[in-house]
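User: Can you fold this complex?
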Amino acid sequence: MALLEIRSLGKSFRGLRAVSNASLEVPEGGLVALIGPNGAGKTTIFNMAAGAYAPDEGSIVFAGSRIDGLRPDQICAAGIGRTFQIVKPFAGLTVLDNVIVGALRREPSVPRARDRALAILGKLDLAAKKELLASSLTLPDRKRLEVARALATGPRLLLLDEVMAGLRPTECDQMVGVFRELNRDGLTILLIEHVMRAVMALAQQVVVLHHGEIIARGAPAEVVRDAAVLECYLGEDASV
Amino acid sequence: MSGNRRAEVLLALLGVALLALPLVAGSYLLSVATLILFFAFTGQAWNVMMGFAGQLSLGHSLYVGLGAYAAAGLFFHFGIGPWAGIWLAVALSVAAGAVIGFLAFRFGISGVYFALLTIAFAEFTRIGFDHIGWLGGPGGLFIKVGQRQAADLLNLRGPPVMFYYVMLALAAGAFALCAWLLRSRAGYYWQAIREDEEAAQSLGINTFRWKMLAVVISAAMTAFSGVFFAFYYNNLFPETIFHISRSIEIILGPIIGGVGTLFGPILGAAMLTILADGITELLAAVGLEFPGVKQVFYGVVLLLVVMFLPHGIWPALARKLGIKRNG
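Assistant: Here's the predicted assembly.
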């Protein structure tokens, strides 16, 4: 059974249909990419899965129970971690303290949360910067911090919202490596991504969203050859 | 010497100096020191809400007033001492804080609007107390001044030095409590909420519950200020104790010293009280008396700090001394 099942999801904002009748599944241990042009509704789907807003129609089932309409903190407790497209570090706290906040979700005490946070910072190459204020980090490091903080909550499913955007190709490849390893260790990942380099390297399945509707799904190599996809989205990038 | 070690040494020196102060200080100096400790304590309490959890209260006079009237009323009418009265004082302040917090956080009132709500509650409580005849109304409530020589700690009647040590114990207790809170789960969660509430929520933090906790702890601590105030000054008027100028006076110390830090409220209270009293004394000495000179002075200091040290004096000083943040 799929770990995350999104069924016929719909959401409108003041008459503007952002998402309509969208269904997708993320299998346990899978790595699925959600792609589509700007404004296609990707982040809206994400925000509903993460509890930022409740869907108008449809349901979201995670690990066998309905989670649509729950608060973000309840969804985190259920086992879903997320990053934000526009990064939201706790700017006035150190890198380590940022991650400790996340780690406290799973650990009963601050010292144990600190150990957990340190281990995760090591995994994301942030250990050397642990005492710096988050506000002093560069964008790539902020993106890494965003991932580290979400990981620290011990999720079964990680929602990544454009974590590659703004990274240089080598940094992007490094991130790809990190997610591959996490996925190999059993973490299920759903990512929104514009950087096709990362999508092609990472995803087992790609779902394409356009004007709030899903127009294609399949293995990355198939999807990029799909005529509808080429037309709406990859037109100018068809050579990827 | 590491940053934390330096902070500990500084704290120990400060503690010894404060304990020994009454041995050398005259009655005027002791009253100034008591006032400093009073504002350090109250500032520390306010700091839990604003400095730690990022919720701006401009109505902390509400909790001072409720605490003061609760304990003073019980003592005046029934002879119940302040250590028993403190329970009612804390209960009332906590209840008021919980109502404000619930209304604001449940209905998503934040930032400036939250601050306005806190002012509104303090203001209509002030007006309300003008109409409670049982507590003296606008004419005020007066507690009988007891024997000034013998210290009756149980009823908080005694010489100034007793009040000084009571306030010192309260300020030290508040410092220890805040230091502990800041290093606990609550401290991490509050700071996360202060920095970015949406991100905090996505990390599993029930922001409503933790913000409520900050308000309730802050209100409970501030109730102690009120009880102390009532028994130290022996008179209470709704017009002064609930007034917004008192709320402002409470928050100036931590803002000037450093919002969100542990030493900030102490440093700010000391600087403001000493300088404001010094200026008033100085002007009086040369034969000048301007009513309101203290308020003008507060304004100037606040302006300078906001312009040149927007994070307050303590963070800049701590860097110079090599002490870690929050130390």
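Chain B has a mean pLDDT of 92. Residues 67 and 89 of chain B are 4 Å apart (CA to CA).
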